[in-house]
Amino acid sequence: MKLRFLGTGTSFGVPVVGCRCDVCTSPDARDRRTRHAALLTGDDDRRLLIDTPPDLRQQLLDAETDRIDAVWYTHEHADHTHGIDDLRVFSARNGPVPLHAGVDMVERMERRFSYIFDPEVRPHAGTTRPELRFFPYDGNEPVRAAGFTVQPLPVPHGDTPTFGLRVGGLGYITDAKFLPDDVIAKLRGVRVLVLNALWFGSPHPTHFNVEEALAAAEQVGAEYTYLTHLTHRMRHAEMAARLPAGVAPAYDGLTIEIEP
């Protein structure tokens, strides 16, 4: 299967609006980081989208994506959900799009996007809205999503219920502060691990910094680890030079192959 990093930035993205730092003005395309999303594609071309950020339309155009089979939501924060209307084109072509989300997230998403989910809200004649169907998961048992067997991985992220996922040889965690012991156990044996990592140095209350992500990666023991959800504090090339062997910063558009 293949994993494409659609967006590798935090909620501000990079460049940050109004910022003239070295990273925000960098000519290196790898330093342009849209909000978080990824696309997992199986050998039979099934496609699972991870999150729907505000940048989703452009991300999917850049990836030349013409079909999504399902969406996996990690959590409800705006930078991971507010591109949900961009799913409208897929439901218009192929019918309702399945959305897999934690049980605590579903009700709040239905309220936030009532124009989509409230059956009493009718679009005007001649207009459309996304046709989407939630399939809640509880974070314990594996879920079938877009033909993949997905193990939800509950991780701490402030007060917001947040989930990573394991699919075969891939472990994928975004927006976590640490990995609980049971999550580390469920990640044993992955070949590729993806972790969020804001920056080197000072800790953050709800996210890994790079040092914390490296410690978590060592506990899991994957062959390769990619860091995502990056800020504008470090250029891609500088970060890559500081990371140990087997660990690399991801960038928008990076596509990797993952063996089972």
Question: What would you note in describing this structure?
Answer:
The protein is α/β, with parallel strands linked by helices. Helices cover 22% and strands 25% of the residues. The protein has eight helices and 14 strands. It has helices at residues 56-62, 78-81, 88-94, 103-112, 114-117, 181-187, 210-220, 236-242; strands at residues 2-7, 37-41, 47-50, 70-72, 97-102, 132-137, 143-145, 148-155, 162-167, 170-172, 192-196, 224-228, 247-249, 255-257. The strands form two sheets. The protein has a seven-stranded mixed β-sheet with strand order 6-5-4-3-2-1-14. A seven-stranded mixed β-sheet has the order 7-8-9-10-11-12-13. The longest helix is centred in the C-terminal third of the chain and has 11 residues, at 210-220. It is globular, with a radius of gyration of 18 Å. 43% of the residues are buried. The mean pLDDT is 97.
- Overall geometry comes to globular
Number of strands: 14
Largest sheet: 7 strands, mixed
Strand order of the largest sheet: 6-5-4-3-2-1-14
Distance between the termini: 8 Å
Brief overview:
It is built from 8 helices and 14 strands. By secondary structure, the chain is an alpha/beta fold.
State the main characteristics.
260 residues, alpha/beta, 7-stranded mixed beta sheet, 8 helices, 14 strands, 25% strand
SSE topology:
Elements: E1 2-7, E2 37-41, E3 47-50, H1 56-62, E4 70-72, H2 78-81, H3 88-94, E5 97-102, H4 103-112, H5 114-117, E6 132-137, E7 143-145, E8 148-155, E9 162-167, E10 170-172, H6 181-187, E11 192-196, H7 210-220, E12 224-228, H8 236-242, E13 247-249, E14 255-257
Parallel strand pairs: 3-4, 4-5, 5-6, 10-11, 11-12, 12-13
Antiparallel strand pairs: 1-2, 1-14, 2-3, 7-8, 8-9, 9-10
